[in-house]
Write a structure and sequence with these properties.
The chain has about 425 residues and is of the alpha+beta class. It has a single domain, classed as Anthranilate synthase. It contains eleven helices and 20 strands. Strand 5 and strand 6 form a beta hairpin.
Length: about 425
């Protein structure tokens, strides 16, 4: 790997990160991953960095879903370096005989990865700056510029007129259709999503992201800029991580609101932990993930480390499970991701049947929503989130969008599912207000 590394101590890490992200907007390609380091999912330590910022494409891969995973494998093999990027939900069409026919106003490519010119890696109060050797002379000037950078605090944009793609009446009808599939035995569970959107809207993506991150403080937050397209993500969910030969998947299924009264809030968390419907949602997806992991795992290595543990975020309580395996050494890292993709928490069980019903009932092409953002390391390890609790923005089209969903099972009450969607939409709406 032809990189130069410089390690420095950063006293005000939070302030420096905010400055660095605003300074980074001069680049056409930006990926910023933020763990909000005081929050940890799982009793195990599965975090490499507190935050990562990757800038500027030295080399890149942009493709539709056709043969996308094979192209990614070739690109990763050739790079032998950090590569950052995203996987759209519609890569399902590369894996199975499926299609995506709905409109897409955001227009992220199905798959995009790049080898960054410049990388910043935060751990505790240490910053590891790794530049390709061609840009080594820019390290000192960049650090000085970031330190002296004046943060922009106001966007000047107006509150967007946020609309629903699916009316409440239509939502009820669609979920009733899904429940018919479940009662017939076609499927056990489907993650059904709906889009909220705003036309002709001007936003400052960095400021909206930072506001969303302050509201949600999520452990798998991310900011992506790809020319005129942006992802502002406050995800609480890890899709998959490879750490040597260990693979870790951490699905979220099961949601309850939070309230200010501490005693009542703790009761809501306890009730979530014991709720048969919420636990069933999670356990069905855990079973699906165990099956997906077994495709690349050594015999007997698939384990459920945590089952339906309650984790409390600023807006909601969630049930999270941790499933791990030891991967076969002959399996390529990209093939492990392909075996797991799309993530079970955003599809349902059985997965292929659920994805067909999703295509029938939803009215928006998911694109990057319910896809994944992350990176491969030079050693071939990886870490990716699940793109949920996210705002997508196309600056050229002036179109902003966010989608929310819930798991529909035989125990679902349609009104409750609708209210869960509105609960998840609350922080996203708040972040878009000026």
């Amino acid at each position: 790997m032809n990189r130069v590394s410089k390690i420095i101590t950063v006293q005000n890490s939070s302030g420096f990160k905010k400055k660095a992200l605003q300074w980074a907007q001069q680049f056409e390609e930006v990926v910023y991953l933020e763990s909000n380091s005081d929050f940890q999912i799982s009793k195990q330590q599965y975090k490499d960095y507190d935050a990562v910022l990757a800038l500027g494409a030295q080399k890149s891969l942009s493709t539709s879903y056709n043969n996308a995973f094979q192209k990614l494998k070739q690109f990763q093999n050739q790079s032998q370096d950090f590569i950052f990027g995203h996987l759209n939900y519609d890569l399902k069409n590369d894996i199975e005989e499926l299609s995506s026919s709905h409109d897409d106003e955001i227009e992220f490519p199905d798959l995009y990865f790049f080898q960054p010119k410049k990388i910043f890696l935060w751990r505790d109060n240490q910053l590891d700056v790794r530049y390709l050797r061609d840009y080594e002379k820019e390290i000192e000037l960049d650090l000085k510029t970031i330190n002296e950078y004046s943060l922009c605090k106001r966007s000047g944009s107006q509150d967007p007129d946020i609309r629903k793609k699916i009316s409440k009446k239509s939502y009820f009808k669609k979920v009733a259709n899904i429940l018919e599939h479940i009662h017939r035995g076609d499927i056990y569970e489907v993650n059904f999503c709906q889009e909220f959107y705003a036309n002709n809207v001007l936003i400052d993506p960095v400021l909206v992201y930072q506001k969303l991150n302050d509201i949600s403080h999520a452990p798998f937050a991310s900011f992506v800029k790809m020319q005129d397209k942006f992802l502002l993500c406050s995800s609480p969910e890890r899709f998959a991580k490879k750490q040597d030969n260990k693979i870790i998947v951490q699905p979220i299924k099961g949601t309850a609101r939070r309230i200010e009264d501490t005693e009542q809030d703790q009761l809501l968390a306890k009730n979530l932990s014991n709720d048969p419907k919420e636990r069933a949602e999670n356990i069905m997806i855990v079973d699906l993930i165990r099956n997906d992991l077994s495709k690349s795992a050594t015999k007997g290595s698939v384990k459920v480390e945590e089952l339906c543990e309650v984790y409390s975020f600023k807006q909601v309580h969630q049930l999270i499970s941790t499933v791990s395996s030891e991967s076969n050494k002959n399996i390529h890292a990209v093939d492990i991701i392909k075996d797991l993709f799309p993530m079970g928490s955003m599809t349902g069980a059985p997965k292929i049947s659920a994805m067909k019903i999703i295509e029938e009932e939803e009215e928006t092409k998911r694109g990057l929503y319910s896809g994944a953002v992350g990176y491969f390391s030079p050693e071939g390890d990886f870490d990716f989130n699940v793109v949920i609790r996210s705002i997508l923005y196309n600056a050229s089209n002036k179109y902003a969008s966010f989608s929310v969903g819930s798991a529909i099972t035989s125990l679902s009450v349609i009104e409750n599912e609708y209210e869960e969607c509105l609960l998840k939409a609350k922080a996203l709406k708040e972040a878009l207000k000026n």
